[in-house]
Amino acid sequence: MRQRLVYVIGPSGAGKDSVLQGLRQAWPQAESARWSRRTITRPLQAGGEQHEAVDALAFEQLSKQNAFAMQWQANGLSYGVRHEELDPLDRGGWVFVNGSRAWLPQLLSHWPQATVVHIGAARDVLARRLAARGRESVEAVSARLARQVPLALPAGAIRVDNNGHLLDAVSDLQQALEQLGADLAVRA
Fold this sequence. Notes:
- The protein is of the alpha/beta class.
- The chain has helices spanning 16-26, 56-64, 104-110, 123-133, 138-146, 166-187; strands at 5-9, 34-35, 38-40, 52-53, 68-74, 77-82, 95-98, 115-120, 158-161.
- The strands form 2 sheets. It has a 5-stranded parallel β-sheet, with helices on one face. Strands 4-3-6-5 form a 4-stranded mixed β-sheet, covered by helices on one side.
- A hairpin with a 2-residue loop joins strand 5 (68-74) and strand 6 (77-82).
- The chain is globular, with a radius of gyration of 16 Å.
């Protein structure tokens, strides 16, 4: 049931991590879902994503060892998702991946039945959020805002607007996933 692979994308500052964290607290299926841990060439930061932090050389070595089921480059960083993070799919479980818009074509070539979730927000909202997190220079924030990725969402993609209250975005995603779960149960 590859539909239970949920690939979440959106621009920097759209609130993907926040929406996913809210979903983990609100969605009844959350305890049995895998919230994939990414390997990133970025140091760990307090309050930030709890990823596997590696340097560029270690990431390259992992890539050569075929450690990643998914990997991409974005905003000067390398990101990977290890194969074992997707293991629950083989047992009919849910797996959530905070992915990359640019890697979407590769995702769909490997997992054409994946559920794609696009979380978006207005440019001014993105700019405020990126500045508030204080992780990057003004120039880096500007580069993130300027990053344009051609995006052709597949049919059935879930779109979540995260311009307003976070709980509204979480509720929208939860409702869409509950409908997806009901549809999958009917087809099983």
